[in-house]
Design a protein that fits this description.
Blueprint lengths: L1 H29 L4 H5 L1 H8 L17 E12 L5 E3 L3 E2 H9 L7 H17 L9 H21 L9 E10 L16 E4 L3 E2 L6
Length: 203
């Protein structure tokens, strides 16, 4: 009985220590840069990513100041070696249609593609090369989102494609009262990503 109580106390102490360490590490991750977070940034990132990432702003929300249009096209290699490329498909338009006039819009429609793209830009340079394990994971994540959206649009045939390519057009938010549909702003960035091999879930 005494041994059981000692084991229970040890388990409780370990749980409390792990909880305290988690709270401290996540706090240092979301807090403004300071000497402690700078000194132990490698250990903090190793604990936080990828499962405990925090990206909210409690006291200073950071809304988007630009509109991004994410388009995708696929390519399939024929038996003769030729590559057949599809037309561009507007992924962002599908999300906007799912949100517009909805009293309780889906969180997925609002944020999945947007957050995947912002995470991609945070982890990749302009050369679109993944230089870390997290960058490679984000690239696969974005690849899977786009592939799934195209497959759904085509009735399940999108995963038959061999390659997928994304194009992201960034425009400033239109001024209040302007007609953004009839008079779209000039793109501030028109980024064409390289062709990626279509991946299957779990790979």
């Amino acid at each position: 009985m005494r041994l059981l109580r000692a084991g229970l106390r040890t388990a409780v102490v370990l749980c409390l220590a792990a909880t305290l360490a988690h709270v401290v590490l996540v706090f240092l991750h979301v807090a403004p840069p300071n000497p402690v977070s700078r000194r132990y940034s490698q250990q903090i990132d190793a604990w936080v990513y990828p499962l405990f990432e925090q990206n909210w702003r409690l006291f200073a929300p950071n809304p988007d100041s630009v509109n991004r249009q994410v388009l995708a096209r696929t390519a399939h290699t024929g038996s003769d070696g030729s590559m057949r490329v599809s037309a561009w498909f507007d992924l962002s338009a599908v999300d906007r249609a799912a949100v517009e006039h909805q009293a309780f819009p889906s969180h997925t429609a609002q944020n999945l593609l947007r957050r995947a793209w912002s995470s991609y830009t945070e982890t990749h340079g302009q050369d679109d090369k993944a230089r870390s394990e997290r960058a490679a994971m984000i690239q696969t994540y974005l690849n899977n989102i786009a592939s799934d959206r195209v497959a759904e649009h085509r009735g399940g045939s999108g995963r038959d494609a061999d390659f997928i390519q994304l194009r992201v057009i960034t425009r400033p938010v239109a001024a209040p009262g302007s007609d953004a549909v009839d008079n779209p702003s000039k793109p501030v960035e028109n980024r064409l990503l390289p062709w990626w091999k279509v991946t299957s879930h779990g790979k």
